[in-house]
User: Which sequence fits this backbone?
């Protein structure tokens, strides 16, 4: 491939095109579609792509808002191939650049068609890139903003003809965007230094506030704006309370076996822990975060793209620009810091138009953690962060259609009342009349003015006497406490409905401030019926879930199977001349009635059942459960979470080895930084899982032999359960809790294990 100053010729049967800067020959539709087919293999453009490309070809500034999967990259790749000179593409991530450069090279016989210049290249590679550019081989040259500002790169770029600048992931410019990069703020001054050329800025997520910020900072306020719909009709949005989340995730993945998915966690530590847990449960998973070395990170990414693994567990460092169209689910272990982040990350599901399940686990405790992380940052940054978090809380806790809420946030209206593709629409909550309440909100807002945020208005209505409210004198307003008959969640739902109905405006310049508009004033004089659904209280739902399942298991026990297992336990106990609780305790039977273990290996994963107990007593129980599952045609939850983390496992091994060596219990506890009660709890866990320990040596030194015999006899002949309280009541005050626990451990070991 070669280029003269005013003429470039594509070889390999490419047709000849003439381009002079500012005198671009108009491409008719058939010609443009021909080049699309020739270079990229597509027969038609998607959405606004053709209009965007024509605007770029005409040398005009262009602003593109297009959701993930909408085909943003093509909007600058095709014009770059058709125009004279080199397109400079500014991109935030090395992985993203590499992915796009590799992709472009598949469309051309010339390997130098696309290059990147960044810190990952050595001097020889840099020289090769510059040589290809100067020889006219290169049409797209990718930079990170940090690399673009280097003096030698600026000097080099002054020597070449630049067709246009493309700023990808342009939301990084804005402090109000979800992935602010200060280096992006320097792009305009550097462009001025290198040499002027048209700009195209592209992003998948931008609220009206962020859009304004981007255009202002890049000096492209007059740019043609092409905004595609943010509605991803194929995505299903769901929020669940953050209860027993590891088990929930494993169950979900196994229900979507062999499908590709991404799990986002906020911390690197959680990424590593969850990846280990998934692998231990037979799931093909890899970790990805910025703390890993580049080779491992790239290898894990490639394993995911090449479908050698099904799941990537990652921080937000993963996914930007990753071109994997068949991701079928995106799970957020932790709620994201902003709705922009949430939208972009969930947008990586179903890019091919197929199914995409977006599951997020939410607890307000996570929001409080995120607020703590902000401490120490500049006050202005903290304020922005808190406002973005409030939007996330509002979305998560709202019981309104999630699609409607999300699209409204990005300045797009969604007319349907029920999208049919979110948890709130699939499981609608009862609506309550809010006509009078909405009128109250609008009247109060009209009275207090447009200098306040929604939480301030709610505080006034509910009569919260804060220092700020006092300073404005609104504690003396007639609206102070006017809404105290309802809680904060109710008023939040009413204000959100007012925003959706277009009765209240959100200030773009001073983000978060709300004001009544003409439509809202009209509602005050002519109100119409309005209903709202009350917000979710996920923290309460989490508490209720924990109360329903004391052992922390996901799902309710099968009552019929549980009773059958209790009957079987009686028969087995009678056969072995043992109390039933020695065979298996009630929590173990309950877990069997949830998990349906049909093999000795699966039985070992049941609460309170280890290898020893499973082998000694498990066969008859497994046989019963297997027959029950087959008869009832039950689909079993395949979510056997491996119990215990590394530190606990270490404790277990140390305790077993120490007891084998007949170490004093106080010394064992001290060595593991445990108190005596904690040590006994650890030992009870080991024994209840079927491991046999001989603690007779310690009991002989610790307590009177007659007392030990009395306790032992009680558990063998009188006890109906292993209850400590029942034993204390029966044996009397002469026996301490520690003594009873120790002998109970000895009894369980000798009779049950």
Assistant:
């Amino acid at each position: 491939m070669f280029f003269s100053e005013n003429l470039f010729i594509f070889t390999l049967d490419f047709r000849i095109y003439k381009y002079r800067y500012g005198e671009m020959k108009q491409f008719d539709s058939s010609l443009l579609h021909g080049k699309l087919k020739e270079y990229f293999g597509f027969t038609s453009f998607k959405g606004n792509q053709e209009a965007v490309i024509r605007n770029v070809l005409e040398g005009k500034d262009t602003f593109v808002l297009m959701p993930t999967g909408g085909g943003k990259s093509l909007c600058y790749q095709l014009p770059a191939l058709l125009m004279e000179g080199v397109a400079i593409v500014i991109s935030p991530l090395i992985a993203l650049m590499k992915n796009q450069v590799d992709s472009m090279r598949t469309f051309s016989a010339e390997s130098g068609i696309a290059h990147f210049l960044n810190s990952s290249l050595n001097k020889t590679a840099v020289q090769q890139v510059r040589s290809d550019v100067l020889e006219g081989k290169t049409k797209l040259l990718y930079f990170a903003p940090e690399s673009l500002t280097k003096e030698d790169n600026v000097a080099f770029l002054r020597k070449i003809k630049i067709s246009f600048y493309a700023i990808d992931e342009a939301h990084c410019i804005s402090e109000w965007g979800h992935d602010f990069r200060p280096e992006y703020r320097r792009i305009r001054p550097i462009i001025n230094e290198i040499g002027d050329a048209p700009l195209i800025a592209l992003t998948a997520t931008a609220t009206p506030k962020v859009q304004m910020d981007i255009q202002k900072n890049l000096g492209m306020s007059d740019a043609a704006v092409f905004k595609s719909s943010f509605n991803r009709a194929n995505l299903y949005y769901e929020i669940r309370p953050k209860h027993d989340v590891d088990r929930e995730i494993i169950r979900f993945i196994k229900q979507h076996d062999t499908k590709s998915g991404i799990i986002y966690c906020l911390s690197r530590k959680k990424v590593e822990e969850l990846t280990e847990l998934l692998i231990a449960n037979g799931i093909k998973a890899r970790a990805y975060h910025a703390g890993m070395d580049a080779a491992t990170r790239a290898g894990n990414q490639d394993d995911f793209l090449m479908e050698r693994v099904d799941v990537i567990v990652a921080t937000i460092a993963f996914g930007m620009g990753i071109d994997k169209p068949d991701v079928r689910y995106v799970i957020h272990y932790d709620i994201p810091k902003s709705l922009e982040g949430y939208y972009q990350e969930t947008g990586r599901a179903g890019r091919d138009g197929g199914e995409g399940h977006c599951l997020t686990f939410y607890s307000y405790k996570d929001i409080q953690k995120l607020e703590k992380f902000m401490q120490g940052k500049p006050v202005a940054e903290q304020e922005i962060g808190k406002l973005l978090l409030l939007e996330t809380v509002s979305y998560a806790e709202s019981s309104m259609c999630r699609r409607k809420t999300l699209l409204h946030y990005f300045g797009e209206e969604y007319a349907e009342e029920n999208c049919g593709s979110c948890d709130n629409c699939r499981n609608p909550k009862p609506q309550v009349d809010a006509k009078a309440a909405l009128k109250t909100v609008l009247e109060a807002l009209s009275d207090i003015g447009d200098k306040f945020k929604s939480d301030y208005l709610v505080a006034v209505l509910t009569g919260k006497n804060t220092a700020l409210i006092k300073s404005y004198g609104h504690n003396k307003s007639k609206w102070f406490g006017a809404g105290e008959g309802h809680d904060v969640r109710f008023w939040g739902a009413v204000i959100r409905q007012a925003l959706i109905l277009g009765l209240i405006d959100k200030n773009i310049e001073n983000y978060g401030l709300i004001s009544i508009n003409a439509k809202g004033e009209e509602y005050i004089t002519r109100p119409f019926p309005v209903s709202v659904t009350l917000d979710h209280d996920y923290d309460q739902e989490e508490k209720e879930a924990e109360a329903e399942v004391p052992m922390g298991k996901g799902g309710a026990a099968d009552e019929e199977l549980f009773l059958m297992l209790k009957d079987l336990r009686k028969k087995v106990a009678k056969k072995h001349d043992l109390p039933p609780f020695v065979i298996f305790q009630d929590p173990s039977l309950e877990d069997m009635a949830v998990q349906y273990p049909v093999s000795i290996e699966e039985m070992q994963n049941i609460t309170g059942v280890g290898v020893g107990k499973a082998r000694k007593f498990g066969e008859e129980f497994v046989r019963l459960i297997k027959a029950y599952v087959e008869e009832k045609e039950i689909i079993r939850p395949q979510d056997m979470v491996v119990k215990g983390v590394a530190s606990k496992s270490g404790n277990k091994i140390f305790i077993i080895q120490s007891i084998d060596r007949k170490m004093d219990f106080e010394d064992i506890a001290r060595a593991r930084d445990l108190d005596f009660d904690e040590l006994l709890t650890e030992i009870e866990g080991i024994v209840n899982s079927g491991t046999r320990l001989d603690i007779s040596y310690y009991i002989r030194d610790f307590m009177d032999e007659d007392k030990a015999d009395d306790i032992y006899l009680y558990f063998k002949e009188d006890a109906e359960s292993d209850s400590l309280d029942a034993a204390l009541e029966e044996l009397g005050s002469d026996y301490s809790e520690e003594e009873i626990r120790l002998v109970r451990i000895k009894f369980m070991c000798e009779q049950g294990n």
Summary: The chain has five domains: 2-227, 235-363, 431-539, 551-632, 646-752. The domain at 646-752 is CATH 1.10.10.1390 (Arc Repressor Mutant, subunit A). The chain has a mean pLDDT of 82.
